[in-house]
User: What shape does this take?
Amino acid sequence: MTTKIIGKVMAIALCVSILSCKGDHEHKYHTIKDKIEAETVPYSGELSSDVYNETIETVLVKEEDGTFLIPDRKSQITSFNCTECHSEPLKSLKEQQVGKKAHWDIKLVHADAKTMNCATCHTGNDMDNLHSLTDQQIDFNYSYKLCSQCHQREFKDWKGGAHGKQLGGWAPPRVSNTCVNCHNPHAPAFEKRWPVRYNTQKVEERK
Ligand code: HEC
Ligand code: HEC
Ligand code: HEC
Ligand code: HEC
Assistant: This one.
């Protein structure tokens, strides 16, 4: 009787061990992400996107988990250098200003007024640079560092190449659009719009 039971238990144990042996290499990692990270081999072949990237003026991004390029911004901002006008304190500039505000075309539609105003990102003492919440200087070319303070999830996805858009070629070095290439920092949400191809039947019905 007992030998019968022991025999059964051993048979079950054997089955279990065979099954688990089979899947063992797959269980080395807790998640798919761990597996990808451990088994990814950086590309080291001959192909290069340099010829495709040539036309884009770029700056280098160095983050602990990756190095890539983003387009230069300072050459694109028409009112840069800011210190052409902001050579004196904001207070005295405001006192001198008559009529329309200097930046009347900029309306802040980003979070609410209790969370954010111009001084959250710009500072009168050093207008040619952006500033973090802890008053660290941030170069206009690296404005993603500003955004990442509050949008960590998108920032992490962007570093990995999942949020945003790659420019130039697919082979390294990688060039990616930076946050402000797509989002206006002053009004970052996109307007709702209809897909380019939409249901013409629905349009008829709405008439
Ligand atoms: C052509 C001149 C000019 C340039 C260039 C300029 N500014 Fe200004 N800016 C002003 C004046 C004048 C004021 C203050 C009077 C006002 O708000 O109308 C001002 C005000 C501001 C304010 C405060 C607004 C407020 O409502 O409190 C911010 C922030 C600012 N500027 C940012 C910038 C940044 C950043 C740049 C560069 C990218 C820049 N400015 C370039 C003229 C300029
Ligand atoms: C969330 C951070 C943030 C806030 C808040 C913010 N800015 Fe900016 N601002 C930026 C960034 C980033 C750029 C550079 C964008 C780029 O690279 O094109 C910029 C660019 C500018 C420029 C130069 C570009 C242009 O359109 O002329 C001016 C002027 C400016 N900001 C003024 C202001 C004023 C005035 C306010 C308040 C009403 C304000 N900003 C609030 C982040 C901010
Ligand atoms: C000080 C914190 C802070 C900073 C810095 C900041 N944001 Fe935001 N952002 C917010 C908050 C808060 C909201 C509103 C979130 C909501 O309504 O759910 C928001 C909203 C947004 C949205 C709209 C989300 C939606 O669809 O409603 C986008 C896009 C965005 N931010 C991008 C940026 C970019 C790009 C930068 C850098 C130029 C930036 N943010 C910098 C706090 C910040
Ligand atoms: C190639 C263009 C592009 C780039 C670059 C880009 N974004 Fe976006 N982002 C988008 C689009 C498109 C959406 C979706 C908007 C929607 O659903 O209305 C989005 C959505 C968002 C949202 C709202 C997410 C939500 O759940 O509603 C935030 C916040 C945001 N982006 C922040 C950032 C930050 C921070 C960066 C830079 C680190 C960045 N984005 C870079 C195009 C871009």
Q: What stands out?
A: The mean pLDDT is 88.
